[in-house]
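Write out this protein's structure.
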Amino acid sequence: MVKSKNSKTGDYVVVAICVVLILICFLPVWNVFVRSLSSPAALVRSDVYLWPKELDLTAYSLVLKDAEYTWALAWTAMLTVGCTFLSMTLTTLCAFPLVFDKLKGRKLVNGLILVTIYFNAGTIPSFLLFHNLNLINSPLVLALPYSLSVFNMIIMRTFLQNIPDSLRESAEIDGANPFQILFSIYIPLSTSVIATLSLFYAVGRWNGYSDALMFMNRNKKYYPIQLLLYFIIQSKESVDAATQEGFSSPGASDAIKAATVMIATIPILMVYPWLQRFFIHGVTLGAMKG
């Protein structure tokens, strides 16, 4: 089929818009990266734009030698993996029973779940609840309270509803119980949506810092990397650290900040290429059936 001239023009416009959006998203990250590789003198002179000037890896060396930062990075990685596994387990176990049309109270349960999207208690009631549960300043406060996303659960439920009922009915005739049906039929057929939602949960936990800021104010040992990064950028601690290490120019502080941001960003960026092929497939299939 030969495209018309207007159709080709429309394609060029869409491609141009996509390129502009990609550059808008990519260039700030690239600028931080090249700043982290540049010398403090070049940063002071404002000579760094798209390419590193006077290549210098000292900032990375200083950051990676900081025991507090490396522990926060390792702790956040462990927290992200654990929370993602917990969240996917709860999401799957919540979505799967709602697939059964014969489930008593199914509509009521769906309604109660949807209510939580529109109404939220707020920060202060949540803080009081966590305080009464002895979760404040406990690592569990970073994992348990927000381990289930209703939005992600709805995507999972909708995806599971798209799986033909005949497969489940055949398994039920053969005597399979619900858990056998879940693990032998539904989960193997749901790798795309599982990968997609796992990415959502992992990115959310890796980038999260507000819950730690509000509920972990007295337990710095379990600060996630993003909260530590928040304090480094917002306070003068980075300048003091640079001075103690023998740097006295503002450029040294800028290089350390840039290196800190890149080290906190690169690990989660590396996850995307592995899950990219599942991403669009999982979201679109999960939205086919309301």
